[in-house]
Write a structure and sequence with these properties.
Strand order of the largest sheet: 2-1-5
Oligomer: single chain
Number of helices: 6
Strand content: 5-15%
């Protein structure tokens, strides 16, 4: 706060509070005996870091969530930097570096989740910092990335 980063500080505190709430929710026991992910065959393919991965609808939903959560956090942190009068630099944001908000540990690898979160974050940050809606929209205070851009980022191929 001494560096006149009040808005960035508030954004980081909110992000950390949301992470704590998420961790509390995840502490509940998981019952694998009735988890449909275990018994559902892969239905999509995507490429991450040069490696082809397969997942089912549950994994696809998590990847979509990663991009959207990243976008939402990026908007918040971009707005904070603009309001604080700091130069744009999404990589300096705590949420970008962490990239775990919304990750439950299920259905996709953490590295995959982090990558897609950061893809959304970069675009959300640009929209938030520049007060624009180039990559997403906002409805009732909730930001989300454009559906066509989401499809492009994920690059999913149906196996059926």
């Amino acid at each position: 706060q001494q560096q006149k980063r009040a808005n960035q500080y508030r954004a980081e505190q909110l992000y950390l509070a949301q992470l704590r709430q998420q961790q509390l929710r995840l502490q509940t026991a998981r019952n694998y005996s009735n988890d449909p992910y275990i018994s559902t065959a892969p239905s999509y393919r995507y490429v991450y870091s040069g490696t082809t991965r397969e997942t089912n609808q549950y994994g696809v939903d998590v990847l979509r969530q990663a991009v959207n959560y990243g976008y939402q956090q990026g908007v918040r942190f971009g707005q904070a930097d603009r309001q604080d009068g700091w130069p744009a630099n999404y990589q300096n944001s705590a949420a970008y570096r962490d990239a775990n908000y919304g990750y439950s540990g299920y259905y996709v690898d953490q590295a995959d989740y982090n990558y897609y979160f950061r893809q959304g974050f970069q675009r959300g940050y640009a929209d938030g910092y520049n007060s624009q809606s180039q990559y997403g929209t906002s409805l009732n205070g909730t930001s989300s990335i454009l559906a066509t851009l989401l499809s492009s980022i994920l690059g999913l191929t149906s196996l059926r």
